[in-house]
Amino acid sequence: MMERISEQACFGGVQGVYQHVSDVIGLPMRFSVFQPPQAKDGPVPVLFFLAGLTCNEETFMIKAGAQRYAAEHGIMLVAPDTSPRGTGIDGVADSWDFGDGAGFYLDATEAPWSSHFRMESYLVHELRALVTRQFPARSEAIGVFGHSMGGHGALTLALRHPSVFRSVSAFAPIAAPSQCPWGEQAFGRYLGPDRGAWAEHDASALMANRTTPFPGGILIDQGLADKFLDAQLLPDQFEAACRIAQQPLTLRRHPGYEHGYYFIASFMADHLAFHRDCLAD
To answer: Measured between alpha carbons, how far is 93 from 40 in angstroms, rounded to an integer?
Structure first.
């Protein structure tokens, strides 16, 4: 059963926060939904946003300024939390870049994380089904985008589930997590030492083994003043993989822009327009 936490009028639509007990996670999970004004007249396309490290289900909705553009284009926005909460796992809150707020949008296979950290199955199957059941959402017109850790999640989930997601874009994604400290920590603890398993959740590795999975293109924006660019994000690796896969990619590099929501808000209009075109009938 879904519980309404809050609902507020926003750009002619409704911005809400909801909670349900997840069978996949085994705990209550919260998520936000913006229903554009067009949803009053029937189902609309859906765009999932996956947030970055330390964020929750409201961060994007509060900071990104996306509702204005979603209302113009008639797109529903859905933002899940970034990890399970209240797991009781020892050490789950010890680090800002692992555990609470850092689920990395995968299904952990290593104990104790495998008991609750199953974000891929939760998003792709349970939450998607809940949204299309409870809200006026078009189940055949779903896209995904995200930021940083969530950009990693958007790219990998889209590549792993191309029949689910018709469009994908990202802001400053962790593009080659097997080759950066954030990814090595998360993958090593969530997935174990087998780097073959890591590759199945690495956007650059996945893309290099595909052939034009998204013929309509992929959009990525990256700030060149981003302090994480060289050590953690590695967009050049994904760009090279797209060349191998013959995947159309628009990778825009922006001088002066950093990693946070000022950067995200600056290019939000372009991303919503990109997904509108991809999800159009």
So the answer is: 41
- Taking the C-alpha atoms of residue 256 and residue 232, their distance in angstroms, rounded to an integer, is 18
- Asked if residues 249 and 137 have their Cβ atoms less than 8 Å apart, the reply is no
Give yes or no for residue 281 having a pLDDT over 80: no
Instruction: Give residue 249's pLDDT band: very low, low, confident or very high (50, 70, 90).
Output: very high
**Long-range Cβ contacts of 273-278 (<8 Å, 24+ apart):** 273/69, 273/73, 274/167, 274/169, 274/217, 274/219, 275/45, 275/47, 275/75, 275/143, 275/145, 275/167, 275/169, 276/45, 276/73, 276/74, 276/75, 277/216, 278/143, 278/166, 278/167, 278/216
pLDDT > 90? residue 96: yes
Q: What per-residue confidence (pLDDT) applies to 224? A: 98
The catalytic residue positions are 148, 226, 259
Q: Quick check: 123 and 25 in contact, CB under 8 A?
A: no
CA atoms within 13 A on the CB side of 191: 23
- Render pLDDT for 155-179 as a digit per residue (tens, 0 to 9): 999 999 999 999 999 999 999 999 9
